[in-house]
Structures are given as structure tokens and as C-alpha cells.
User: Which sequence fits this backbone?
């Protein structure tokens, strides 16, 4: 696909005139999807898709057109030439853009991770063998993901990753379930078997009579998958310079210095260690790391080129949404093997779900416990917990109420497939809290 | 284009139990003015097909943007391969939908075409509203946007029958944030809740041109309003909050594929079980819910679903009693329950699943004033801004942009950061009043499915009054 993309770009840029500049942003994938219910196939198929966004710049005017490509040049080239003409016509009718900014210094790059992916039949057989007797629900998604950038100034960037992600939950009854996943670039049926064996072990505890607890503040451990949900929602505007400048960031009080997080909390956007492409749609390289929170205090923001122009600061390779795609939280010193003893009595929360801001400016978040959440007494899981709603501020959960972060961290790939398979990921520890406020 | 695809597919359709092609062609243009500056005009064009094969007890699909004869042939072969692979592993009773017979067409009625205004005129229109939002120095953020979507779909059975549908959507939105003294308050036009099918006439229908000054004034006033108090009280919900209440705590729990467990790993399960249909009291007697994809102009109107089933209006809840789930033909066959025509896919890259279409709360007889006069002390809440519900769609919490006290049967002062919480299984039984003035609204970005799908659904509702609801405010 890389050669195809570059050839298309060469052909279109050859038709540019005068001071026109063309930016080309490509996203494609060839994916196999197998959807399971009751450990059997509910839906299975393949999806091939290629999107090329052409952005034409003339002086300080710009317009863009995203085209779904067929992958066949005899079809695509005439459409791209027509798209160029359509963009030219649009530019005659749009005003100048004072915040237009794109990379003019040529910086080429290539990154590839080519794995060993299984044939679909092998995946079906493995699930058939290893999940026998389990009520497994979930999705297997696999295949190459392509991202590319090119411009008429000669810049070329390519990012290609061939990976798989099996994301599943095994259900005991109603909403009592254990969630797990297996992602990577080299498939191993033995590793799948090991992970499913762990799930079978956890399901034994879920079989105990569930515990109901009244609303209140409870000592709690948030496993990395649960903490992921909190960091994920903070990514909606929390680290965005634009949101901070327009007084709408959920971390506004942190940014302005009127509140702080626990000194153990250090957050950074670490593209160099994630799975996302090291470049963005305006052609800028993403730095390997951007500090966001250092020892509980605001340390930086994600700044896209447009915000850089509007607010008069330097950009740092963020996409237009200014959301992280490779967020990392520094580890603490609590060994994961000692989490239950450290928790002593309280909630072990495996997953959170459906988070939303109940008071955005105050950093207050509500959401539900989901899947494997247990009541723990004297360091032992004694019962699964009925789902509970929490409603608490980030300044409490990752501030005054935070006791410890685990020494080990997990890489949590983003399982989102809206419009295409995500390349984002998080790396983070688990968190032990003195108290989490449950409300319903 | 679609006719060429039809002819090619009819030539290539394989000798299998069933083979269906769904071709979708979509064009979208989005215009935005942010803090007074026109953003780059963005246009999107996408076309592709999904071919689904049922054969020998297996089912498979292949989606491709290559509409050439070679592209279609390759997709058919891949779909056949998947059908072969899944024949021993498939969930039982995944029978193909009935054959598509004859040819049918459906088109969104459009009174005023998108192209009746030039691009410059459309941008001017947004710029005017943008100026009307920025009416005070405490307004720190404001934006106006308008998206226009044209979606053509063609469903072809291997037997030669076809269904062509042409939908046109208009998505207007605006938002304004006021900030002072460490406090920020935002008002929006509903977060795209006022999106509808149709042309530029939608802007008049949703009163787009009168909203900006009111929203800006309200954002400014909310800065000085007291926090919503914590209490259990009467709650009057405006239609643009009822949208989310219906969507999350009636629509999703009644989706039959959730009840059958398909969504348990992602969107969740349901507190509703198959045994409840026909007798379960979902709400109090004033609660009447219809599934109606035939409402002209509502966001998810269509004549046929994406499996080719003809659409019809159906009561889902009548006088508070739960009658039937939101399940398409396939789900109905899996469990023997009646359903509706709601197999829907977001585009050509994703297969159809059970979705809401237009799910509406039927109007009662009271005016808004009459509902208010029933309340000695309570709250009125408008425009959703926060939503969260458990994976069984039971315990929920919603927040609204604007609250207003109701005292002695009259609307009184504003309160900020109003929220409420409850449990679906009991909340609808506290419905005591249904207004007569139904607003046609919707949710253009409902997420569901593995792989994930975002899709537009419509909800029409009047204002509704509930008793004894837990309400509270911000920090």
C-alpha cells in the first residue's frame, strides 16, 4: 500500500499549479473480524478500506476532501484529479484562515511492525478448543493497519502495523463476568489458553453469592483496565491546550494551580513507546514524549498546529482533537502481588464503564463498575459485587485519596473500531485508593 | 454508479443458499465557524459494498471499496470462504433474511436543497449566528456548525430484487461557553439533538436562527445561578433531555440482540428478559412508546431496513406495559419473539445489527404550563450534557445544561449543574405527566456493535413529569 499511496500522491502533486501546496493523509486497513457469542460465531467477515484526505492550500486559504479509495489506480486517479479540481473551486469561495499551519520542513519516516498473524481457521479452532464450556462473548480483529502522510514539499511518512486483538468477556450469569484480552503481533494458541485458564479461575470466585453494599466511600483498588477508563475520559479535553484556553478542560483547576494531584502521579504522551504513528495529519513529527503532569502538577498540554497559531505557542505534534494516543502513567512501588493485602477490606474493581463528567470543570466523573468487581476482606476476595455507581473528582481519586500505584504497569491497547481499528494505547499501573465515593 | 454495481453483481452472484449485496454511497460536507473564524471546509465521499453469503449453515461477509467486476468477484469469494469457515462454529438459527422481491425505492423529502445556497452564503449564515453568540466579554468560546449528509443505499438479492433508498440529513449545532471567576457554563443547541432528515428547511423547523442570543444569555446567567440542591423532588424534563432518557433507559435495554447476549462484551446486556414481553409494567399508564421509521423528517426514517424488511409503526410499550423488543428478523428467529424492522448498519463496512430507528414517546394532553402548575416544589431540566448508565441499562445518572426551580406551580430561578439519578426499572413508573407538544429530535451518534458502529437514531418526545427523583448539583 505504501507504494500505491506514494504513486497517487506523485500523480496528483504533478498537477499542482502556482503556489498551491497539497497535504495528503492516508488511513487504511485490511481487517478480519470474528464476533463471538456463547463461544460461537455471531458474525464473521473481512473489511478492506482506504481513505485519502487531500488538503489543498493556496496562500492562507485551505479546504479538504476525504475520499474513500478503491485501491485500483485506474479508478482512483481520475477521482483524485477531479477532487483536486473540486478543492480548487472551493478555495475561490472560502475566507483566509488566520490559523493555518502545516509542516514546511521536510521530515520523512518509516515505521513497521510486521507480525505473524494466524489464519482465521486457526483462530476459530483455538477458540473452539480453549473456550470450550465457557460463555465467551467478544471480538477478534486482525490484519494490517496503514497510516501515511505525504505533501507536495516532498515529505513522506509511513506507519504500518500487522496485529491482532482478541477482546472478550466470559459470563457466569446475568452481568457477572470476567473480562480479558490478548493482543499482539505474534499469535500463540498456548498464550490464549493460559489467559483463558486465568479467566476460568476468576469465574470460580464470581460464582459466590454477590454482595450488595450501600452508597458511601470505600477503600478500593482500581486495576489497570479500570484506571484506563478514568484516563481515557480525561483525554477528552483534559490535556488539550484549546480546552484549557477556553475554560472547559476537566483539568482546569490543575492547569491553573488551584488544585493538584498526588505527587505519585506523572503522566506523559509517549508516542515513542506506543503503537500510534509518529506523525500527524499536518505533517509534524510527534515527539517521543510530551510531559503532561509531573509529580501531581500540570507540566504541559497537547498542542495541535491550529492551537499553536491561535494561542501563540509552539505545537507538539498533537492531532486536531488534542487527545492523547500513547498516554503513560509512571509506576509506583506497590507490588501487584501485594495488592489484595494492601487493600485489606474494600473493593477490587476490575473494570469501570460508561464514564461521563458530572461536573466537568470540577473534574468530577461518574461511571459504573463492570465485570469482575469483588468485595475483599482481610486480603481475600470473598464475593462478587453488584454493580455500583461512583461519582468522584479526579482530585480525590488521583489526589487526596490515592494511597499507592502498582510497581508493574500494563499496556492497554485501545480496542475501539469506530470507522477503523484504533492505533492508540495506554500504559499504566493499578491504583489503591483510601476511598472511592459510591452513590447508587 | 449504483446501477453498474447492480448489473455486475447480478452477473456474478454465486450459486449459494443466499447472497446479498449492500452498496452505500455517502457524501458529507461540514462547515464550522469557531470563535468567529471559519474552519477549513471539509468534504467526505465514500462508496463501497458489503457482500454477505449464507451457505451450508455458515455465514460470512466481505466489504470492499473496489466496485469493479474483479473487486466484486474477490469479495464474493471471501464471503464464501467465511461462510465455509463458520459452518461448524456458528450461533444457531442464523438463517438468511427472506429474499428481496421486485424493486422498491424510497427518498427523503427535501423542500430546500443544500445547493440552493452557495458555499459563501452557507458560511455567511453560520458567521451571522456566530456573531450573535459572542455578545459579552465573559463569552470565552463559541461555535456554530452545519453538516449535510447524502446517503444512497442499494440492497440487491442474488435473485435480482433490489431496494434503493436515498436519505438526506441536516445536522445543525451551536455552543457557547461563558466564564468568569473560575466558573464556566456552556449552553448548546442540543449537541446535534436537532438533526433531522431533509434539506435547508430543517433550519427553520428547529428555529436555528433564533437560538444564539438565548443560549448566550442563558450561559451568562448560569454563571451566577446557585448550584442545584440535593433532594428528592418532582422533576420536569424538557424534550432535549427526554431524548437521552428514552434512548438509554428504554431504547437500549429493549434491543433484542442485547437481550440475546451479543453485546455483553461491549455495549452491555439488559435488565429486560424475554419472559417480560406482553405483560411487564415498564412504566406508569401515561407511558406509550412507538417504534416508527415512517415519520417524515425524523432522523432515522426509512422504508426498509438493511436486511430488506419493510418498515412499519409498532407500539413497543402501550399504557406502560412492555409489548415487544426492538429486534429484526434474525433476532426474532433466534428467540421466537415478535419484533420490528430494525436491522441497520452504519455504512458499507459493517454488518446490520438490531438498532433503534425512530423510538418516540407519544404525546399526552397537558401543555408545559399545565405540567408546571401540577408541581408545588420541583425542578425543570433542559438539554443533556452528561450521561452514564450501567451495562444492564438500569442504574443511570444524567446531567443537564440548565435547571430551573419550580415553586408553587410556577417556573422560578435558574440553578446550575443540575443532575439526577435513578433506576430504569422503577423510574418510568414515576412518570405522572406527559406533555402534548412533542419535539422531533434525535441522537446522530449512537455507538454499538463489535466491530463498532456509530449510527443516527430519532427520538420524538414531549416534556415529561416524574415524581420523587433524586436530584443534585455540582461541586
Assistant:
Amino acid at each position: 500500500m505504501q507504494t500505491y499511496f506514494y504513486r497517487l500522491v506523485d500523480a496528483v502533486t504533478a498537477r499542482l499549479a502556482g503556489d498551491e501546496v497539497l497535504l495528503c493523509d492516508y488511513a487504511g486497513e485490511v481487517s478480519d473480524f470474528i464476533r463471538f457469542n456463547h463461544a460461537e460465531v455471531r458474525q464473521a467477515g473481512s473489511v478492506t478500506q482506504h481513505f485519502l484526505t487531500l488538503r489543498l492550500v493556496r496562500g492562507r486559504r485551505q479546504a479538504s476532501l476525504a475520499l474513500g479509495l478503491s485501491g485500483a489506480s485506474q479508478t482512483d486517479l481520475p477521482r483524485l484529479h477531479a477532487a483536486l479540481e473540486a478543492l480548487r473551486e472551493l478555495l475561490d469561495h472560502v475566507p483566509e484562515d488566520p490559523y493555518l499551519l502545516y509542516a514546511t520542513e521536510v521530515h520523512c519516516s518509516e515505521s513497521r511492525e510486521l507480525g505473524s498473524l494466524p489464519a482465521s481457521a486457526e483462530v476459530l479452532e483455538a477458540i473452539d478448543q480453549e473456550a470450550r464450556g465457557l460463555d465467551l462473548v467478544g471480538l477478534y480483529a486482525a490484519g494490517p493497519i496503514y497510516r501515511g502522510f505525504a505533501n507536495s514539499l516532498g515529505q513522506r511518512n509511513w506507519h504500518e502495523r500487522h496485529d491482532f486483538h482478541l477482546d472478550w468477556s466470559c459470563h457466569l450469569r446475568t452481568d457477572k463476568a470476567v473480562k480479558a484480552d490478548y493482543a499482539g503481533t505474534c499469535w500463540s494458541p498456548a498464550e490464549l489458553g493460559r489467559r483463558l485458564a486465568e479467566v476460568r479461575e476468576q469465574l470460580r470466585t464470581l460464582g459466590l453469592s454477590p454482595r450488595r453494599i450501600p452508597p458511601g466511600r470505600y477503600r478500593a483498588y482500581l486495576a489497570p483496565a479500570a484506571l484506563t477508563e478514568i484516563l481515557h475520559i480525561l483525554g477528552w479535553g483534559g490535556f488539550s491546550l484549546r480546552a484549557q484556553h477556553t475554560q472547559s478542560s476537566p483539568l482546569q483547576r490543575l492547569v491553573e494551580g488551584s488544585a493538584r494531584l498526588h505527587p505519585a502521579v506523572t503522566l506523559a504522551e509517549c508516542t515513542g513507546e506506543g503503537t500510534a504513528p509518529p506523525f500527524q495529519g499536518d505533517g509534524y513529527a510527534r515527539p517521543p514524549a510530551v510531559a503532561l503532569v509531573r509529580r501531581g502538577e500540570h507540566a504541559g498540554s497537547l498542542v495541535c498546529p491550529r492551537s499553536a497559531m491561535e494561542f501563540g505557542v509552539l505545537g507538539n505534534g498533537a492531532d486536531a482533537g488534542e487527545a492523547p494516543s500513547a498516554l503513560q502513567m509512571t509506576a509506583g512501588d506497590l507490588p501487584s502481588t501485594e495488592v489484595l493485602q494492601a487493600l485489606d477490606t474494600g473493593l477490587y474493581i476490575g473494570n469501570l464503564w460508561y464514564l461521563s463528567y458530572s461536573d466537568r470543570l470540577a473534574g468530577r466523573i461518574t461511571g459504573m463498575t463492570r465485570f469482575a468487581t469483588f468485595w475483599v476482606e482481610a486480603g481475600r476476595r470473598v464475593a462478587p459485587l453488584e454493580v455500583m455507581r461512583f461519582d468522584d473528582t479526579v482530585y480525590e481519586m488521583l489526589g487526596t485519596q490515592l494511597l499507592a500505584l502498582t510497581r508493574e504497569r500494563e499496556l492497554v491497547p485501545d480496542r475501539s473500531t469506530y470507522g477503523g481499528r484504533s492505533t492508540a494505547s495506554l500504559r499504566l499501573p493499578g491504583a489503591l485508593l483510601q476511598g472511592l465515593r459510591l452513590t447508587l | 454508479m449504483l446501477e453498474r454495481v447492480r448489473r455486475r453483481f447480478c452477473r456474478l452472484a454465486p450459486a449459494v443458499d443466499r447472497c446479498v449485496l449492500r452498496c452505500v454511497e455517502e457524501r458529507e460536507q461540514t462547515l464550522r465557524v469557531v470563535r468567529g473564524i471559519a474552519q477549513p471546509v471539509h468534504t467526505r465521499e465514500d462508496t463501497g459494498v458489503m457482500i454477505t453469503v449464507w451457505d451450508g449453515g455458515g455465514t460470512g461477509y466481505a466489504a470492499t471499496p473496489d466496485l469493479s467486476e474483479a473487486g466484486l468477484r474477490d469479495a464474493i469469494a471471501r464471503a464464501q470462504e467465511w461462510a465455509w469457515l463458520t459452518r461448524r462454529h456458528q450461533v444457531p438459527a442464523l438463517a438468511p433474511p427472506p429474499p428481496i422481491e421486485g424493486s422498491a425505492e424510497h427518498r427523503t423529502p427535501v423542500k430546500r436543497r443544500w445547493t440552493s445556497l452557495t458555499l459563501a452564503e452557507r458560511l455567511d449564515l453560520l458567521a451571522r449566528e456566530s456573531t450573535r453568540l459572542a455578545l459579552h466579554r465573559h463569552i470565552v468560546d463559541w461555535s456554530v456548525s452545519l453538516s449535510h449528509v447524502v446517503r444512497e443505499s442499494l440492497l440487491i438479492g442474488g435473485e435480482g430484487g433490489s431496494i434503493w433508498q436515498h436519505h438526506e440529513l441536516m445536522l445543525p449545532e451551536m455552543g457557547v461557553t461563558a466564564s468568569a471567576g473560575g466558573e464556566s457554563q456552556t449552553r448548546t443547541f442540543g449537541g446535534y439533538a436537532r438533526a433531522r432528515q431533509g434539506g435547508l428547511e430543517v433550519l427553520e423547523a428547529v428555529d436555528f436562527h433564533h437560538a444564539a442570543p438565548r443560549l448566550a444569555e442563558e450561559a451568562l446567567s448560569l454563571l451566577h445561578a446557585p448550584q442545584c440542591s440535593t433532594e428528592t423532588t418532582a422533576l420536569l424534563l424538557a424534550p432535549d433531555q427526554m431524548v437521552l432518557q428514552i434512548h438509554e433507559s428504554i431504547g437500549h435495554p429493549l434491543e433484542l440482540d442485547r437481550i440475546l447476549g451479543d453485546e455483553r462484551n461491549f455495549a452491555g446486556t439488559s435488565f429486560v428478559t424475554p419472559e417480560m414481553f406482553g405483560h411487564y409494567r415498564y412504566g406508569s399508564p401515561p407511558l406509550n412508546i412507538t417504534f416508527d421509521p415512517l415519520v417524515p423528517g425524523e432522523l432515522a426514517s426509512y422504508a426498509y431496513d438493511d436486511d430488506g424488511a419493510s418498515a412499519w409503526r409498532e407500539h413497543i410499550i402501550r399504557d406502560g406495559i412492555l409489548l415487544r423488543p426492538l429486534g429484526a428478523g434474525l433476532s426474532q428467529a433466534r428467540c421466537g419473539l415478535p419484533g420490528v424492522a430494525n436491522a441497520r448498519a452504519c455504512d458499507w463496512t459493517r454488518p446490520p445489527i438490531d438498532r433503534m430507528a425512530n423510538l418516540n414517546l407519544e404525546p399526552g394532553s397537558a401543555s408545559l404550563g399545565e405540567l408546571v402548575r401540577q408541581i408545588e416544589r420541583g425542578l425543570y431540566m433542559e438539554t443533556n450534557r452528561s450521561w452514564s448508565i450501567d451495562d444492564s441499562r438500569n442504574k443511570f445518572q444524567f446531567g443537564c445544561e440548565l435547571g430551573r426551580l419550580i415553586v408553587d406551580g410556577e417556573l422560578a430561578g435558574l440553578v446550575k449543574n443540575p443532575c439526577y439519578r435513578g433506576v430504569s426499572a422503577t423510574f418510568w413508573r414515576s412518570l405522572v405527566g406527559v406533555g402534548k407538544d412533542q419535539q422531533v429530535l434525535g441522537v446522530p451518534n449512537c455507538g454499538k456493535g463489535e466491530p463498532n458502529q456509530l449510527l443516527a437514531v430519532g427520538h420524538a418526545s414531549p416534556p415529561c413529569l416524574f415524581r420523587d427523583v433524586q436530584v443534585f448539583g455540582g461541586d
